[in-house]
Amino acid sequence: MRFSSRVPHKAAVAAAAVAVLLPLSACGGGSGSSGGSSASGSGKIDGSITFQTWNLKTGYKDYFNGLIADFEKKYPGSHVKWVDQPADNYADKLSADASGGTMPDVVNVSPDLGAPLAKAGVALDLDGDPAAAKYKKEYLPGAWAGNQVPGLKGTYAFPWYLNTGPLFYNKALFKKAGLDPQKPPATYGELFSDALTISKNSHGTIATLANVPTIEDFGRYGVQIMNGKGDGFTFNDAKGVDLLTQYVKLYKAHALDPQALTATPDSAGQKFLTQAVAMNPGSALDLGHFKTQAPTLYKNIGITDQITSTGKVNMYVMGLMVNAATKQKATSIAFAHFVTDAQNQLSFAKKAAIFPSTAGTLDDPYFTKEDGTDTARVRVAAAKSLKNAVNYTPVVFSDQMKTELGNEVAKALQGKESPKAALDAAVKSCDQLLKQS
Q1: What is the rounded distance in angstroms from the CA atom of residue 262 to the CA atom of residue 329?
Q2: How far is residue 314's CA from residue 355's CA, in Å, rounded to a whole number?
Q3: What are 404-432's pLDDT values in tens digits?
Q4: What is the model's pLDDT at position 23?
Q5: CATH code of the domain made up of 47-164+315-386
Q6: Would the pLDDT of 158 be above 60?
Q7: In this structure, are residues 282 and 298 in contact, taking their beta carbons and an 8 Å threshold?
Q8: Same fold across 47-164+315-386 and 167-312+393-436
Q9: What is the pTM of this model?
Q10: Checking DSSP bridges between strand 47-54 and strand 78-85, what pairing results, if any?
């Protein structure tokens, strides 16, 4: 079950894994700041800093201009220059800035983009800096941990906004298969059993799932993805093999869509829309689309939690990194915290379809009470699960690694390799790529 990592608004700032290749020499350097009156060690919050976001200016210019004005009013003598980079080649831009010592003071990053910067010494360790570490308690534990890097001690970005989604299911298809439409599967065992029942009773014409398992699915299943040192992958353990074995059974029985090997989130969504698939993750935007494009499906939509063996759903994290070499450390830390504090995160969440990472904010009525709209219906369902959610995808799990895992999963589903052999091969390839990085 693949949940989209994108924030469902025009900015589309993804937490998609994009490798940032940094030369070994990129270990700090100068600051992108324009300088100012206070040195990094003074502790005084004033002077000029540069704040860089990732394709947010088009939809949220007024919000950020107001946010900056509020900060400068709170701290007289401070000045924040805001720059917004386009989505295309953002990783390359970060790499170039890190190499050239021109990294801005506060930078919008996803965990996978922040990890190589942390390894290169460009990202400030918040846990190791008293001025930043004191804010840790203000954030959800899973969100704070989402900006940690296997093999390194510390946390390398303030958690900003989160994203997740519930699971949609087609009540009519469940009822037609003889299942209780009011009782969707709540465990993996129930999911696999219901999927086989739906396939059997539809004579193989209705699949329950449309995507092959990804690394986050292994995490939700309770598989240990990496070893304790963070220098090797372990998703080929007994639980990992069991998960893939179950998917092989589903694939053979047509309970997993035959086109799952080449599916994308969009194609899987289309399968669900045409009622060829009984379950699929989604968002409020999807629900609105169903209402206009597939009213029959819309009437039969059920919403349930992500299925997990750990009791914790998957979430995607966006963060604000502080440049370790900034000449305005106190001001940079203060601003990164200001942008991500409870009040400002709640304000931003009400303007975009995202969720705050601050502790307690999800108890706000905005996230707990429905108002009869599709947006609120999905928002409340998703927010409920976020309080103890985690990011199951290791920040070092690159696109190449995802491809290697996907290729081996496909071989297992097609019967070309056993699930154990496929995962052993995937772990071996991913370990080699990890060493190369």
Answers
A1: 47
A2: 13
A3: 999 999 999 999 999 999 999 999 999 99
A4: 29
A5: 3.40.190.10
A6: yes
A7: no
A8: yes
A9: 0.82
A10: parallel
Distance CA 62, CA 165 (A): 27
The one-letter amino acid at 388 = N
d(CA 62, CA 375): 23
Q: Which two tokens stand for residue 157?
A: 């970005």
| Every domain of the chain and the residues it spans | 47-164+315-386, 167-312+393-436
Radius of gyration of the chain (CA): 22
* Inter-residue contact 345 to 358 (CB < 8 Å): yes
- Separation between Cα atoms, residue 104 and residue 89, nearest integer Å: 17
Per-residue pLDDT, 42: 60
Instruction: Give 13's pLDDT tier (boundaries 50, 70, 90).
Output: very low
Residue 108 has phi, psi (to 5 degrees) of -75, 115
3.10.20.740, 3.40.47.40, 3.30.420.10, 3.40.190.10: CATH of 167-312+393-436 = 3.40.190.10
Distance, CA of 212 to CA of 410 (rounded, Å) = 8
The one-letter amino acid at 429 = S
Q: Model confidence at 151, in pLDDT bands (50, 70, 90)?
A: confident
Q: Which residue has the tokens 């088009």?
A: 58
Task: Give the 3-state DSSP-derived string for the chain, with helices as H, strands as E and coil as C.
Answer: CCCCCCCCCCCCCCCCCCCCCCCCCCCCCCCCCCCCCCCCCCCCCCEEEEEEEECCHHHHHHHHHHHHHHHHHHCCCEEEEEEEECCCCHHHHHHHHHHHCCCCCEEEECHHHHHHHHHCCCECCCCCCHHHHCCHHHECHHHHHCCECCCCCCECCEEEEEECCCEEEEHHHHHHCCCCCCCCCCCHHHHHHHHHHHHHHCCCCCECECCCCCHHHHHHCCCCCECCCCCCECCCCHHHHHHHHHHHHHHHCCCECCCHHHCCHHHHHHHHHCCCECEEECCHHHHHHHHHHCHHHHHCEEEECCCCCCCCCECEEEEEEEECCCCCHHHHHHHHHHHCCHHHHHHHHCCCCCEECECCHHHCHHHHCCCCCHHHHHHHHHHHHHCCCECCCCCCCCHHHHHHHHHHHHHHHCCCCCHHHHHHHHHHHHHHHHHHC
Q: Nearest CA to 409 among 427, 396, 394, 386?
A: 427
Query: Beta partners for 226?
Result: 233
Residues in Cβ contact with 341 at an 8 Å cutoff, skipping those fewer than 6 apart? 138, 358
